Amino acid sequence: MEASTIAQVGAPVLQAVAEPVLQFDEPLHALVERMQMIMQEANGVGIAAPQIFESLRVIIIASRPSERYPDAPMMAPMVLINPELIAYSEEMVLGWEGCLSVPDLRGEVKRHQWVLAKYQDIYGQPHQQKLQGFVARIFQHELDHLNGYTFLDRISDEQALLTTSEWLQQS
Ligand code: NI
C-alpha cells in the first residue's frame, strides 16, 4: 500500500465538513469496498471516507482484538452512511486512541460511554443502534473525521499524548 493512499493530519480533506451521501448507487458501494480494503491493510478498527480523500459522510466501524487494542470486542464490520449522534451518556470515559491519519502517536481521549447512532445502510435504509464502550469510541472518533476533526483536537493539556513506542512500553 502506498503511503499516499491515506490522508495524513494537516491535509485539507481532513479539516473539511464532509458532504452527505445522496445516491446509494454503485460508486458508493465501490467506495465502501475500497475503504474496507484500505482499513484492513492498515490494520485499523475504523475508517472514514475523508481519510481516503473522499469528502463524503461514510464511516466503517470494525472493532476486533489486536496488538494495539487487546481488549477490543470482535464484531462484524458496520458501514454507516450519513451517521448522526442522536443521544449519548453523560458518563465520559478516558481511553487510548490512534488514527491511520496520525502516524506514530497515541492519545488519551474522553468519549461518551454509550451513544445512540442514527445512520443509513448502503441501500439507503435508515437504522438506529446503541453502541457502547470501545465501539462507541470508534463511532465518535470516525464521526469527528466527517466534521473536520482528528483525536488530536480532543486532547486537553492534562491528557497524555505518546509516541507508539512509548505507549507500547508503558502498557
Ligand atoms: Ni482516525
Compile the SSE list and pairings.
Layout: H1 26-41, E1 46-48, E2 58-61, E3 78-88, E4 92-99, E5 102-112, E6 114-120, E7 126-132, H2 133-146, E8 161-163, H3 164-170
Antiparallel strand pairs: 1-2, 2-3, 3-6, 4-5, 5-8, 6-7
Bound molecules: nickel (II) ion.
The site of nickel (II) ion (NI) has 5 residues, from α2.
Structure overview:
With 171 residues, the protein is of the alpha+beta class. The protein is built from 3 helices and 8 strands, in the order H-E-E-E-E-E-E-E-H-E-H. A 5-stranded antiparallel beta sheet has the order 1-2-3-6-7, with helices on both faces. It is globular and about 45 Å long. It starts with 25 loop residues before the first helix and ends with a helix. The mean pLDDT is 93.
Please give the radius of gyration in angstroms: 15 Å
Structural class of the secondary structure composition? alpha+beta
Low-confidence stretches: none
Largest sheet: 5 strands, antiparallel
Hetero groups: nickel (II) ion
